[in-house]
Write a structure and sequence with these properties.
Elements: E1 4-8, E2 20-27, H1 30-39, E3 44-47, E4 53-54, E5 59-66, E6 71-77, E7 80-86, H2 91-100, H3 119-122, E8 125-126, E9 129-130, E10 135-142, E11 148-152, H4 153-156, E12 173-183, H5 196-202, H6 210-224, E13 232-233, E14 242-244, H7 245-254, E15 261-262, E16 267-269, H8 272-278, E17 285-286, E18 289-291, E19 299-301, H9 307-325, E20 334-335
Parallel strand pairs: 2-5, 3-5, 4-20
Antiparallel strand pairs: 1-2, 6-7, 7-12, 8-9, 10-11, 10-12, 13-19, 14-16, 15-16, 17-18, 18-19
Helix pairs in contact: 5-6
Length: about 325
């Protein structure tokens, strides 16, 4: 093991927070991971791309970075391709691989930061698609038994930005590889959500390809979300709340133009960014931290912030939204 002591995590979290890990190492395969787990007695934290965490303090114990690579086709039939991806593969690199090889189904999730191993934990999603829509199964290493286990889609119990890995298997499972089912022919293009169709029309595209959808999504994301290399952020900080239809109709009486996305006959999803903006917080700044001027869903580090400053801003935002709408928004970002 190559264990580094008192290691700065500044380059390993997209907020750019200079917190330190007491110990730090990486693993490149399952055997490597099992060896580390077997020989290490102290607390262990697993890190993917660092794009969905808020570090509020230095991290005790060992921080392990997943660097398991590999993308390979394991089965192909009837226009469907099963593709196995290492947990340490950068998610957008996986998407680029799919596009290069004409594999469709996940193009709406282009440019989402993070790793493939983190995608099922969060059940990442954007523009009408979630990773669970193409998910088949995964393998993980149990921290306690050191054995590998396989979980199917149903066993992962995916929900909105949720999964079994945030509940029963939290701090137990370390995901080593994921299998997705993608289309090789007869693509099911999804342009109904957000500004995708508008962007395609603006670009004069009529016969839409998966590459066109990806390009549109990338363009939209770049126009709305700040680049972490320029200004520290973790993308969307809050989940979009799901409320009852009764609560929605009450709010709609006062705000007729409230955007909404029905979940079923009884519940509806409201954009958290809209709630934050209507609470007067878009572009709000307090010292080293603030809410982005173009996207109210994004909290930013203007340079020298501490994690606790961002956490305080998050609590302030939650309170303001609750005070105005009676709706409790929750962080999407994992807080360490």
């Amino acid at each position: 093991m190559n264990i580094k002591e008192n290691f700065s995590l500044k380059a390993f979290n997209s907020f750019g927070l200079d917190q330190k890990a007491k110990w730090f190492s990486t693993f490149n395969d399952v055997n490597d991971l099992q060896s580390i787990l077997k020989s290490w007695d102290e607390e262990i934290h697993v890190l993917g791309g660092g794009s969905n965490i808020l570090l509020t303090k230095d991290v005790d114990g060992l921080v392990l970075k997943n660097e398991i690579q590999g993308i390979k086709v394991i089965k192909e039939e009837s226009g469907k391709v099963l593709i196995e991806v290492g947990g340490g593969v950068i998610w957008h690199n996986f998407i680029l691989h799919c596009l290069k090889n004409n594999l469709g189904g996940l193009e709406n999730l282009s440019l989402i930061p993070g790793t493939v191993g983190a995608a099922p934990i969060q059940n990442i999603g954007a523009y009408g698609v979630e990773q669970k829509d193409r998910f088949v199964s995964l393998e993980y290493v149990d921290r306690g038994t050191l054995k590998t286990y396989k979980l199917t889609k149903n066993e992962c119990d995916f929900g909105y930005r949720d999964s079994i890995f945030k509940r029963e298997l939290k701090n137990i499972a370390i995901i080593s590889k994921v299998i997705y089912a993608l289309d090789h022919h007869e693509y099911k293009i999804n342009t109904s959500y957000g500004a995708i169709q508008e962007t395609l029309e603006h670009n004069g595209i009529q016969s839409t390809t998966i590459q066109d959808v990806s390009d549109a999504v990338i363009s939209i994301r770049k126009s709305k979300l700040p680049d972490p290399s320029q200004i520290g952020n973790a993308g969307s900080f809050f989940k979009n709340p799901i409320i009852t239809m009764d609560a929605f109709h009450t709010i709609k009486c006062e705000y007729p133009n409230i955007p909404s996305y029905p979940i079923d006959d009884e519940t509806v999803k409201i954009p958290a960014g809209w709630l934050i903006e209507q609470s007067g917080l878009k572009g709000y700044r307090l010292g080293n931290v603030g809410i982005h001027e173009k996207q109210a869903l994004v909290l930013v580090n203007y340079g020298d912030a501490k994690g606790n400053e961002l956490l305080s801003l998050a609590h302030f935002t939650i309170d303001k939204v609750h005070e105005k709408f009676g709706i409790e928004i929750e962080p999407e970002v994992n807080i360490w």
